[in-house]
Amino acid sequence: MQTATPTSRTGPTNPTDSTGATDDRSRHRPLVEGPLGLVLSLVLVAVVAAVGGSATATGAGSWYRTIEKPPWNPPDAVFGPVWTLLYVLMAVAAWLVVREGVRRREVRVALVAYVVQLALNLAWSVVFFGLESPGGGVVVIAALLASIVATIMLFRPLRPLAAWLLVPYLAWVAFAASLNVAVLVLN
Question: pLDDT value at position 16?
Answer without folding.
Answer: 44
